[in-house]
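quick one, 244 residues, struct below
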Amino acid sequence: MTNEVLRALKDEYQRVELSNNEIQNLINNDYLKDDNEKYMKMYNWMSRGYDLVETIGGKLIYGNQVNQMRQEMINKLEWTDNALVLNVSIGTGKDLEYIPKHIDKKSLTICGIDISAGMLKRCKKKFNQKFNLSLLRCCAEDLPFKDNSFDIVFHVGGINFFNDKQKAIEEMIRVAKENTRILIADETNDFIEKQYKKRNITKKYYNDKTIDLNEIEQLIPTTVKEKKTDILWNGKFYCITFRK
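---
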């Protein structure tokens, strides 16, 4: 764990012995139930082949559309050299590949959190030598960081099925510095219906699920500024940005 991320941890974690180069397990088991537990198990199972499916399978089906959509999203953040970055639900770290080219990536300090140990292990294997990267296993609803710690905060994929969406949004806002632009994105209900509910490997996880984008938008506090929702990738993804 980098010194910058260590300093951002809440005081109670400052007293815990943490390894410099390992994935830290700071999970709050109170949140490890219901949908959180269900999708944690799903992503643990999928983690080994996740990137292969997206890179090869996604390319065959969608061409370059997924890459273009990811780049469009990541470009909405306000990147600067030397930023302290929090990627909530980092997964295998795919979005790190789209950090703008003009940014000195080695100058960034990136902290990725995820509920899935399997996804974090894949992320570490891919990116540990490319970035100043710290990985923590914890829930988005209970981030182990002090208030006003991060220059960049973003989340792509997952919030649709968090146990407590509002708490996760509040936590992302809490740990972001004042005036930080925050990004929250996930699949639309149309994509869930046409893709996840029809694929053999995913349909059992999504058959009883629907997404209400308006409901998610209403969970964002009215105190934020410049709130905007963009629908990307021909209606398959939504992207909400706002400023703390």
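The mean pLDDT is 94.
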